[in-house]
Amino acid sequence: MFANVSALDGSLYFTISLFFVLASFAGYFIFLFTGNKTISRISFGILIAGFIIQTAGFVIRWIYAYKIGIDTPPLVDLYDSMVFFAYVIILGFILIRIFYDFDALGFIITLVASLALAFASFSPLAPSAIEPTIPALQSYWLLYHIVALFLSYGAFGASFGLGILYLIKSGKSNKKQGRFLTLLPSSNIIEEAIYKVIVFGLVFLTAGIVIGAAWADSAWGGYWSWDPKETWSLITFLTYMLFIHARFTKGWGGKKMAWIAVIGFVVVIFCYLGVDLIIPGLHSYATPGSAPLL
Amino acid sequence: MIMTMLSKLNKFLSSVKLAIFLFIAIAVFAMVGTFINQGDTISRYKSIFGSQTYHVLYWLGFLNIYDSWYFIGLAVLLIINLIMASVNILPRTLKAVFGPYPSFKAMMDKKNPKAVYEVIESKKNIEEIKKTLNKKFGKPFTEKGNKDGANIELYYSKNAIFRFSPFIAHFSVIIIIIGVMLNFRYGFRSYTNIKVGEKTNVSYLLKNQKPIKLPFIIRLDKYETKYYPDGIPKSYISKISIIKKRTHTNVLTKNVMVNHPLTYDGITIYQASYGQYKPTKVIVRILVLNLKEPKFRKYVYAETGKAYPAGIDNLNFRFIPYKNPKRDEIPFYLKILKANKKNGTVKTILFHVLPDKNLKEQIVFAKYKHAAFIYSGIDKVKTYYYSGVEISKNTYVSIVWIGSIILVISMFFSFFFNHEEVWGSLTNLEDEKKVRVEILAIPKKKFESFYRNFSKKIEIIKKELKLK
Lengths: 294, 468
Known about the structure:
Strand content of chain A: under 5%
Number of domains of chain A: 2
Number of helices of chain A: 10
Number of strands of chain A: 0
Distance between the termini of chain B: 63 Å
Radius of gyration of chain B: 41 Å
Distance between the termini of chain A: 34 Å
Oligomer: heterodimer
CATH class of the largest domain in chain B: Alpha Beta
Strand order of the largest sheet of chain B: 8-7-6-5-4-20-10-9
Radius of gyration of chain A: 20 Å
Structural class of chain A: mainly alpha
CATH topology of the largest domain in chain B: Double Stranded RNA Binding Domain
Helix content of chain B: 25-40%
Helix content of chain A: over 70%
Shape of chain B: elongated
CATH architecture of the largest domain in chain B: 2-Layer Sandwich
Strand content of chain B: 35-45%
Number of strands of chain B: 22
């Protein structure tokens, strides 16, 4: 019975994809110590397979939701949002990997994606059953709001990984370079990638916040209410604004920028999950059964 | 003296460093506001933090931080910073787009750390060299030769128009802020609770609970919650009518739901909450029986407080609620009056629950002589709802949206479209019958990909220039 439901609503496919992502993670882990290019290529292939399975999962889940009479996309509760987060972060890595030789990043991305998928699949906090959408979320704004913000979350996730790589690389650049470090692209390339990924995320973050404000204007009575989630999205926005502007000041080299990329993602994670777990507000996925508004 | 001070002030107010400081400061204070519940009641704060901590927090302005003088002060400073920065960027941007463009020599003298400089010597003639360079860098924007034709300066510029995008991005934030301020000044956000069937034209401001008068009357005709089969609420629906003040005519009636507000005369009504209330006026169906006449049956829909004839012995009765009913107690009692006496109460009698366990519903009765009064559960009669609506005047919000759209678009262009400039200098070295080709490029961003692409181009140019 359980297996039946999970196959129907698509959640089975996400659980399966978790094993692909884990396998890919293991491959990238081995790659870190051996530098074997074949292994990293295989890992990338497995990851793409996992990504395709997830894509199928989304299609099936969406169709299933419509079939059972829920006419908003299944993206609203904690389970769906974690799965979607893993999805966009993998997508981000695949895109970066196509343009740059960034195999070492795969290790961090698959780790973050595995954690998100494992939490979604096995945590009792995130049941996979599709719940009917509460009135506050029944809006065509929902899809655009969530997709824009998750694209930005994915990009910021990637910049976090790149930031860590940069810090590892620059921290030991003058001492002897271990195998892992020689596998990394040069600091300059990482720095450029961090910038490009962050500005991509920043455009979508801004768009997502604006869409959210427009939605709030049509649903809650005003475009801005200093709701904790809104406030934290502003804090996230300011953090990355800091990143963009700090480039123009002297003394802000690559290392500080990498730190902002890392800290920025911590802020993102707090905005995404921490706000729900710690502060109740109009947005909420983390507290099951609590209706935002009404 | 004053001029240098002003220029220093200008430099400070338009500096990126100030912007960075403000980003951090605003973020930190905004954070504080999310951890301390804003705008709660004093008693609640005291119970959470204790009296002493409460006073400290109050003094720091942490309990209403987004309205505190320093938070608004930081925002104002950011606006000044933004305006000053925009004003300062503009002449530079205009010059970069429309000229006069800096010469090769001027750029060389600047010794920009990002610059790349290449020298190639070629035996080809100047026209051929120009052709080769144009193939790689596009059409020269300007071409300046000195009098004897011994030297030509070339200036290539691509995507110059995108130099405006950062300026437009900053300007759009100013537009947004203007929209927000106009909205703050001329708009309002308020809420009011209306009971089903009742009207109001008073609403209470969210920020200070002060009542305001609406330019029209709203009436709640009906309230309903719809549920999914598993009991999760599907929609909250308030049927609301707008009534004109002077003529008292019904202008329009609409179902207001979450995500589906009603806008009339620039004012928008949103579904915000609902609830049930204990009515002050209740209508209960009462069955009157005459114990001497088994066939006598009379139903009376009794409103509380009003007198109704029982139809027995010229008796009237009044149905009266207790002011503070205790739980599990019958919330009413009866007053019996003689019909011909004015306001004279004959007797007050109490209701009792009929002690019969076989009955599905609780039946309550009262008896006066041979008249019996019976009713069963008032909940059955009617549920009394009120609906909480938020009433907002969101004027000038369109300015905010226009600014936001411009912001997103201009951010996209500032991040992904760079102004590319290349300076070339071709000098005839007469005695050696060679041309010295100097190429200088300064990227906007110090990116590895730029240098790589540039050196690729130089490789190709070198190859072509060396061919005979």
